[in-house]
Amino acid sequence: MNVEKLFLDHGAFLKGHFLLSSGLHSDRYLQCALVLAQPAAAEELGRALAAKATAKPDLVLSPAMGGLIIGQEVARSLGVRHYFTERTDGVMGLRRGFSLKPGERVLVVEDVVTTGKSTKEVFEVARAAGAEVVGALSIVDRSDGRSALGVPYAALWAVAVPAWPAADCPPCRAGVPVVKPGSRKELKHA
What we know:
Layout: H1 3-9, E1 13-19, E2 25-30, H2 32-36, H3 39-50, E3 59-63, H4 68-78, E4 81-88, E5 91-94, E6 105-113, H5 117-128, E7 132-141, E8 153-158, H6 170-173
Helix pairs in contact: 3-4
């Protein structure tokens, strides 16, 4: 599967000046939602990611919003249920009647991993409930190997996309307006 081609074909590899959910800035953005809006592509990506799971989970757990569709597709492929976490007042947690049981084996599925912050927050939710995180998967790894998730991790596409703190951001220095395309609320930046 050529994930880069899917992103290019669906206009999902954007260029400009972006504020990422991590708080970092970048001149490129991977808009997974444009690819996942295509049911056949979402199903294919879900099957390909499920094949990379190193352990059979009891369920897939994903952060909202980015992990919702791909998490559902991975869960479907693995034949397990899918729950998602949401932020309430900035804190990641389970809502909507979702609950984990002690000892349940959880596979965390994301769309993109940059710093790993959201993924690790989902780990904390699972572990606080006594569940065991058996691994993590994402469509794209743009961490350049720096995410250090501490569990078996695989992605379908590792891509080096630069990201900078606002103080070191070339587009900021050039006066290019910043856009926040992701799902997390606006972050304060310099």
